[in-house]
Amino acid sequence: MKRLDNKTAVITGGNSGIGLATVKLLKERGARVLFTGRDADTISAVAESTGTIGVVSDQSDLAEIDRLVRRTLHELGKVDILFINAGTLKMMPIDKVTEEIFDEFIRINQKGIYFTIQKFLPILNDNAVIILISGGGTKALTSPGSSLHIQAKSAVNSMARTLTIELAPRGIRINVILGAAIETDLMKHAGVPEEAVSKTYEKLQEIIPVKRTGKAEDVANLVAFLVSDEASYITGAEYVLDGGLARKAVF
Amino acid sequence: MEQLQNKTAVITGGNSGIGLATVKVFKDRGAKVLFTGRNPETVAAAAEKTGAIGVVSDQSDLKQIESLVKRTSQELGKVDILFINAGTLRIIPFEQVTEEIYDDYISINQRGFYFTLQKFLPILNDNAAVFLMSGSGTKTSTFLGSSLKFQAASAVNSMVRTLTLELAPRGIRINAILPGAIETDVYKHAGFPEEAIPQIYETIVAGVPLKRVGNAEDVANLVAFLASDEATYISGVEYIIDGGLARKAVF
To answer: Does A60 contact B at CB distance below 8 Å?
Structure first.
């Protein structure tokens, strides 16, 4: 039995990390999948290897979101699953954050998510599911230089809360996954030196109660469950996925 | 799809409602299941119907928990999944709660959880998954006469938070399920007149964004996912399943 047979799914940021793992898993479970990314080469490689549809699109540009919606309608018809996963990471002390840096980060990681939902609404099926992803999985924990990252994520959590009520009349569910310490290329893309990245993950491994960092597949499994008919009573939820990290005191 | 093949599972309060639905889903997915209940007749009927092993046991009595652990060890060997689900509901105005009522309620719904877990620890496999049913769906909203219910539920949530760390060295995960309005016999058992119950659910449905009460199966599906190897990075969490109820303001 394929749990997602006949469902149509759109995954933004599907060309690497958590997005890619989810593209593979939803495809495996029978869904027809369209994904986006910003890098044309990796997109076509992923589309080829997974047998899904890859589209170059940048969620910081509303005109591109409009085009993506039209393309999706053309390729898949109406959409059952929308996983807004695309995002960037910027670690930076507050005194270095210029207006330009602020606007660019928020445009991708907050405004882009809001308008992706808004513009997809007309082509979502009734009873569709939207999944948002919010880093800073533990809600309370921050690290130096995370002021941009965590404020955008807080805004994303808020969208899930308020839109729960606005989307419910159409039976559309919306949930947010709060992942922490998931190993992806995000830090590398953010310009953190490779050595520092592996050191960070090593340290995390010691701290995390389940004694390992998360994998992209851990998140994909939770997404696949939440978008299935088995989860039809779950909406407005913030599901933490962090190996128990949030329960660990710092001393 | 046999997500729980070869796993051994114990479900307390498995003779009705959410517990019974979980017994069925676990059986369907390949687990060997033992469940408890306090009523010998419904326990026998549920065992017959599901092909699971039914044991009469009351978690308010530590001696009975010890006998249950011995019996489990004989029947199943070591345990991979422990779902502490048994509980009662008591809606009563604060000033009418006598010491006896208080002790009786807490011994089942709080103390019984704590010691069931403690006494099962020696026969849990490393990497086992433990679930506690928390009576507190939305964490923040309460209603009149709920002082017993919510203090026990809060205590149960607290057990999950603290024991995440204590059980992690053995790879044992522990998570809380926080259901909203799920249609079960709990109101009937709490002494509500049968004709009043449909009215209660109608009132609740009006406030649930998804416009239905939950089924026991909705909760069973979530537990089955969390108990599977797909969820090994999830520990220490409180997962709400409430049709969006927690997001609804009262006005």
So the answer is: no
CA B68/CA A234 separation, integer angstroms: 33
Query: Which is nearest to A219 in space by CA: B234, B114, B157?
Result: B234
Q: How far is B168 from chain A (nearest CA, A)?
A: 5
pTM: 0.91
Using the predicted structure, report yes or no on whether residue A187 has a pLDDT greater than 90: no
Regarding the domain delimited by B8-243, which CATH topology (the fold level of the hierarchy) does it fall under?
Answer: Rossmann fold (3.40.50)
Q: How many other CB atoms sit within 10 Å of the CB of residue B143?
A: 8
Chain A contact for B30 (CB, 8 A cutoff) = no
pLDDT tens column, A120-141: 999 999 999 999 998 765 555 6
Which of A201, A221, A233, A250 should one mutate to test binding to chain B, selecting the residue with the greatest count of B CBs within 10 A?
A233
Quick: pLDDT tens for B56-106: 999 999 999 999 999 999 999 999 999 999 999 898 998 999 999 999 999
Per DSSP, what are the bridge partners of residue B238? B176
Instruction: Give the model confidence (pLDDT) of A136-157 as tens digits.
Output: 655 556 777 888 888 888 889 9
**Structure tokens of B106?**
């807490």
Please spell the DSSP secondary structure of B173-209, one letter per residue: EEEEEEE-SB-SSHHHHTT--GGGHHHHHHHHHHH-T
Chain A CB within 8 Å of residue B114 CB? no
Per-domain residue ranges of chain B? 8-243
Q: Where do the domains of chain A lie?
A: 8-183+216-241
> Measured between alpha carbons, how far is residue B50 from residues A85, A123, A150, A237, B7 in Å?
41, 42, 48, 32, 16
Question: What fold, for A8-183+216-241?
Answer: Rossmann fold (3.40.50)
Identify all chain B residues contacting A225, using CB atoms and an 8 Å cutoff.
225, 230
Three-state SS for A105? helix
Instruction: Give me A86's structure tokens.
Output: 């695309």
Instruction: Provide ipTM, 2 decimals.
Output: 0.86
Q: Do A248 and B165 touch (CB under 8 A)?
A: yes
